[in-house]
Amino acid sequence: MAETTPVGDYGWSFRAGSLEVRLARTAPEVEAAQSLRYDIFYGEMSAKPSFEMAARKRDFDVYDAVADHLLVIDHERGPGADGVVGTYRLIRREAAGRIGSFYSAGEYDIATLLRYPGEILELGRSCVHADFRTGQTMQLLWRGIAAYVFQYDIELMFGCASIPGVTPEAVSLPLSYLYHYHLAPPALRPKALIERYVPMNRLRVDDIDRRAALAALPPLIKGYLRLGGLVGDGAVVDHQFNTTDVCVVVKTDLVTEKYYRHYEKRERRPVLAYQRL
Fold first, then answer.
1. 277: nearest Cα among 90, 75, 142
2. For residue range 32-47, what is the model confidence (pLDDT) as tens digits?
3. pLDDT: which is higher, 146 or 235
């Protein structure tokens, strides 16, 4: 069971054993997240870094400066930047407005999401160190996301999620499954930019082995589906990252209610000790 610790202006923190999840507070912590992203995306997954990224051994772009960076920190490695073993990048509407767009707009027409009247949140750059890819780590990351959603009254989450490989024919089964069983309604449906559009409706619905299709999906996408996630129209081949991307949309009223009940109870419960991190 993770322990919740109120942390002043930073809002919240969760601990489970040596692991803690919270938002990055310092530039070195953000740089540690970027280094982890580099190791996984460009080391393990053979993405193609820019010259500057390769020189710095960090994955970075203009969106990092306006994003909040959710971290999993292993305190046995260190209390701050030295202990970063997991990360998620979170971009709210106000933050994206400061630089003119969301990251996903480079692959998808997200006009339907921008018209959504409530607060929206883009999720991206998720990764976990190989030694910490456990259910406990992922649960902590999702507890952190749920806390962030609660803190900022987020109603809709979205982002590009990746299937390994750049040959759509090789992933026809999972793409077709997502299209036939999890396509977002028109009012919430992003569409791949016309010049990058790859059809997802590659197999007839009667030809889809649903069990095999689910087995072919990466754990992250399956996690979104368990939260009621839906997908946009069209996939996008990302040659830099050696992936085929889909745009996932999740309404937060479908996120597990236990998180909200947990936070609401804490607000009514006397707090015995505060730790400002």
1. 75
2. 999 999 999 999 998 9
3. 235
